[in-house]
Amino acid sequence: NGIIVGAVRRCLIEDCVASGNGWDMPRKGNGPAGIWAWNADAVTIERCISHDNKTSPGSGDGGGFDLDGGVTNSVIQHCLAYCNAGAGFYVCQYPTAPPFGGNVIRCNVAVDNLCGLLVWAAPRERIGGCDFDHNVVVQRGGKEAFQVWEAERVEAITFRNNVFLC
Q1: Which pLDDT score is estimated for 125?
Q2: What pLDDT sits at residue 82?
Q3: For residue 84, is it left (φ>0), alpha (ψ between -120 and 50) or beta?
Q4: What are the Cα distances from residue 1, in Å, to 52, 137, 151, 164?
Q5: In what order do the strands lie in the sheet with 3-6?
Q6: How many beta carbons lie within 10 A of that of residue 115, not counting itself?
Q7: For the segment 73-126, what is each residue's pLDDT rounded down to a tens digit?
Q8: Cα 28 to Cα 2, 4, 147, distances in angstroms
Q9: Are strands 154-160 and 127-133 parallel, antiparallel or unpaired?
Q10: Backbone angles phi, psi at 103, to 5 degrees
Q11: What is the H or E stretch that residue 117 is in?
Q12: How confident is the model at residue 40 (pLDDT cuts 50, 70, 90)?
């Protein structure tokens, strides 16, 4: 991982760069991300860049920015994610995580990541309460602009005024 915060309240991450993380991921399963938070409240990630992050072969993650299980009232804004092995910006709810909600992903740019924007909830978990607003996603080479995995477990996720160039 590049920068990871967990079990915190009121955290600010700004003007940072995370690059090349996860290249030595030793196991299969979920992998690292450039800049992310889990089980946290009121986290702001802004004006950051996350690029060229990796993951182990056949594994998930390896993305740019992530609000993960149990994150509430948090925002990722004015950030750039490019050329990551996973999604540029994603939200996830892992098994047994505290509730997730009140989060915003806004005014970001994602270029040529495995996927631009991603929403995922683990089996028997639900994820909701996140707005994706005013983001720009540029995907070349047939890569997907956004994905929602396990859509039946996703509630109250909104996409507004985003631009997708594929």
Answers
A1: 86
A2: 98
A3: beta
A4: 12, 23, 27, 27
A5: 3-6, 33-38, 63-67, 87-93, 115-121, 144-148
A6: 21
A7: 999 999 999 999 999 999 999 989 999 999 999 999 999 999 999 999 888 888
A8: 19, 20, 22
A9: parallel
A10: -105, 155
A11: strand 115-121
A12: very high
CB count, 10 Å around CB of 76? Answer: 31
- DSSP H or E stretch at residue 157: strand 154-160
Look-up: residue for tokens 């996603």? 137
pTM, entire model = 0.94
Q: Which region holds residue 123: left if phi is over 0, alpha if psi is between -120 and 50, else beta?
A: beta
Any residues with CB less than 8 A from the CB of 80 and at least 6 apart, and which?
48, 49, 50, 51, 108, 109, 110, 111
> Residue 97: what are its φ and ψ, rounded to 5°?
-70, 150
Q: Which amino acid is at 137?
A: V
To which residue do tokens 């602009």 refer?
A: 145
- Cβ 98 vs Cβ 66: under 8 Å: no
End-to-end alpha-carbon separation of the chain, Å?
28
Instruction: Give the containing element (helix H, strand E) for 103.
Output: strand 103-106
